[in-house]
Write a structure and sequence with these properties.
By secondary structure, the chain is an all-alpha fold. The protein has helices at residues 6-9, 16-44, 46-50, 56-87, 90-108, 114-117, 120-148, 156-185, 187-194, 196-200, 202-213, 220-227, 235-239, 244-274, 280-308, 311-332, 337-363, 371-388, 390-398, 405-428. The protein has 20 helices and no strands.
Length: 447
Amino acid sequence: MSNPSQEEKAGGAAPAPGRTAVATLAGTTLEWYDFFLYGTAAALIFDKQFFPSLSPTAGTLAAFSTLAVGFVARPLGGLVFGHFGDRIGRKATLVVSLVMMGIGSTLIGAIPNYDSIGFWAPVLLVLLRIVQGIGLGGEGAGATLMSMEHAPEGKRNLYAGFPQMGTPAGLVLANMIFLVTNVLMGDHTFTSWGWRIPFLLSFVLVAVGLVIRLRVTESPSFNRVLEQDDVVTFPLAESFKVGFPRLGLTLLAVVANSAVAYVFMVFALSYGTKNLGYDRQFLILSVTASAVLWFVTIPVWTKFADRHGRRVMFIGGSAAILAWCAVFFPLYDTGNDVLAVVALAGMGLIIPVTHCVQGGIIADTFPAHVRYSGSSLILQTGAILGGGLAPMISTVLLGDGGSSVGVTWYLVVMCAISLGGAIALFRVVPDGPADLAEPPAEAVSPV
């Protein structure tokens, strides 16, 4: 392995940890841009474009079903990319995942609608959604590992939080491009064909992301795995040696965050415009502003976790999410713009408390030689049980009557499950990585 260049030592370029953190943030932002763009379009556009023969409720449910397909595909991507990430390295797999997401999103923008090709329109939509899901499945755990495993000593949570910032950043980027395109073209033109432009822009954005990502160095932790000849043939199977109690509790602890986030980011748009009469542009702007709060508070919470530990923060955050879910829809249902902004902003402030460290908690469950595979399994299973099904379940619970009471109870129960899982998890395991014997990442020179 080579030593850092003299330019890096002299401060002429960003050191490997900082450069890697920025690269993972850029990559995850672009991947989540593609994923959230689909969610916004599913909430507001796809029912009319791809399921026009269905009733409004059935059309919305069908559109959200295609959204869920991406979550079902994510574990497949997680398993495939996790396997190769533990065997050949993190960097190569993250490059491929970014390319897959970009191709899938660009082609979605080119699919003819139902009026043009009939049944094949939703079929192609589902197939490309699967490509998106596989790509994001490889990205989710891998980006966190790449940044965290480059982290200087004492900043593990901060660096693991950089890829998590890509989630709200991607949402902001997707919503702003979606909104600007809508405003410039007008509602009729936008819903007819203008919605395709944000998807087609994915090609340009991913090209920029690739330039950034190709400059990062391989993970120091993976380099140690190679040096110690710890690469295993089937890393996923090896990851189960952590034990089912810890695996199960980790999954329970993180599942609610995904469910709440997707109700906030996707379902609330559809419900607010179709049932409560909120202006579409107002809601998109409100959700976007809330995502900005989410983004800027992540470094605050990750620094807190590095100084004081994750246990109290994560459990407290889980309790806070539960409490806010109990009041979110009562505030939102008033139809009052000010109270709607309060409800959405509250989500933007509370969700990051647990979201910012959950990637690190999952990663620290596993030793380095199986970390990609094990983390992907937990993260993507939680995404299906939480985020992937949440808009569909919420739509079913809402029904034709339009009452949000069932949705509120659904979120409260999910949050109670995660709160119980978090309390039990931190009683069973220490608040730290599975491989504490590893030297700090900064002690190993980048390749």
